[in-house]
């Protein structure tokens, strides 16, 4: 029997809408949901490899309980009742002795996040964190400092842009399918693309203008751009007068930062900086300076992100067609959002978070997400209190937090590590219990509230029955809760029940998703009125160049520029990123993707390689203060001589994932755990390495 199911991809967390063809209970084909604008039936390579994950025998096939040392790979298969009882009993003991706050749960923000938050709130723990700060924490803080909204509440109108500017936003390799399609459409319609990166990525090859910037110096470029834009009055004066708070302060601040000064700092010729400022201003307000994700990742990241967003404000492109926009929720059109379990009443929590977010120690990161890279320090120093149990739910602290050795040492102090995963990730392998989740093709998930220019809701729908003895994450957490006396916060017996409960009062039913895979609250795109109707949520109700958020917490809005140091002689700045074939640390063992890209290589500049006697494809040793490893060199002119580059996500240590075990080198193992203490993001690119012939 043949059927088609609309669902959501989860080969990465972009969650592209998909159409899945099923024949006699087997998935035979996956494509982008053709009903969704921007998808046009397409998928990225990872999405297309979904069946390779589904049918992989190297997935976790049943609950597993550790019998040997942590990480030794000695497991016994367990039934669900056994594994859940084991976790429930241990957890009860820990909560009784140390309190609910000694339990931490970390996850990649996902559809069931309201379930995990509920799980912790029910036991009185404030210690939920998401991956967010690892990904774009400083972008989030920068957005709140300027607009009063998080980055998650802001989007880019790719399809209508006339000029897009990307600071290492490697959009054609670090993919979201709709964004790629919409930007391609704009480029076909004549839009310009400027791309800035110390490395010639695929996106660089498609750009009209490419600058090989000195790594870590984008902020200098931006201050010089602002200098030119203000001095030549290239900005949208009407918009800026109406909406910007602190223009005079910015003007005074950028006065010394001339294009000539920036040329020395960045390596980009002054006349090109001036010419670019004049060119981009001609297309305002349909221009977008992308605020980025992981591009430049340094201890001062918050100020780089703010400077990018301020350039948008100067162009009048915040809440403009072809620029940036604020995402509109159902409330905007009189609709109601899906319910979340977390909206229930819980016992009051009096203790601070483990990462001290929201206290004077670390005031600005978003407490809705927390800061994962503080976890190793919190555990090791029992500061602010002892942490005893860690739940990893679709999150991998060993490879996603810099300095694997430090994290591992911290984890060794825990009494309980439980991982809900689909793969033998390194963290699953290092856990006490693995609770295997069904893959996205095998499970129905919670509602996705998709805010945007048109508010909508999407649903991940089970396409086929679970192939192995696996369950949905939201059911697993409920079943643990039942064993520790908090089951009453989870009023559902199945995922369908939970989804129906979420939809109560919205006017939509589960069946409404069958026709197209989503439901829409209205047909029109909503832009607020640029004269008077933009609802900034800052205290001044304006875009705060001079930021009350920063200044009230004791930080400057305009700190003097401090250069990122160039590497000492013989060393390199370590830079990392993604390619189109892998998702972070989780797809390296997926058979099809592993075949296409089975290990990472080290990009090194031709001149520097010659000095070191390294030829293309030689095996080299790369070492930092934290770790060393061997990797093949890719000798090329396509990278700035100050840095070397490798793909994130290789060098797995879990033997259960046989194809990816020990292949390539892990960036997280090499990196130091240092971060932007204002914005919250890790400074992934502030580690220096030595490279020599092996
Ligand atoms: N295929 C694929 N797509 C993905 C993901 C994935 O894992 N795989 N993940 C998704 C997620 S969660 C994210 S956060 C995004 C990430 O999206 P991006 O942030 O666009 O992706 P990265 O690969 O981290 O890009 C880093 C780029 O920044 C450059 N860079 C390094 N230092 C500097 C610098 O000082 N200045 C400038 N201008 N550039 C610099 C690097 O050379 C690299 O090309 O991708 C999303 N899409
Ligand atoms: N060193 C270093 N660290 C980084 C980055 C970097 O470039 N370098 N990038 C950062 C960025 S931008 C991000 S977004 C984060 C991402 O960090 P993570 O969220 O930790 O990484 P992912 O690869 O997305 O997947 C995490 C885990 O989810 C599991 N998983 C996949 N699908 C499912 C599922 O359906 N159910 C369950 N239960 N588990 C599943 C995977 O097997 C994996 O163990 O990492 C950050 N950390
Ligand atoms: S970008 Fe690719 S992997 Fe990620 S959700 Fe979309 S199709 Fe799937
Ligand atoms: Mo990310």
UniProtKB/TrEMBL annotation:
GO terms for molecular function: 4 iron, 4 sulfur cluster binding; metal ion binding; molybdopterin cofactor binding; oxidoreductase activity. Signal peptide: none annotated. Residues 2-58 form the 4Fe-4S Mo/W bis-MGD-type domain. InterPro entries: Asp_de-COase-like_dom_sf (IPR009010), MoPterin_dinucl-bd_dom (IPR006657), Mopterin_OxRdtase (IPR006656), Mopterin_OxRdtase_4Fe-4S_dom (IPR006963), MopterinOxRdtase_cofactor_BS (IPR027467), Prok_Mopterin_Oxidored (IPR050612). PANTHER family: TETRATHIONATE REDUCTASE SUBUNIT A, TRIMETHYLAMINE-N-OXIDE REDUCTASE. Belongs to the prokaryotic molybdopterin-containing oxidoreductase family. This is Thiosulfate reductase. It comes from Desulfosarcina widdelii.
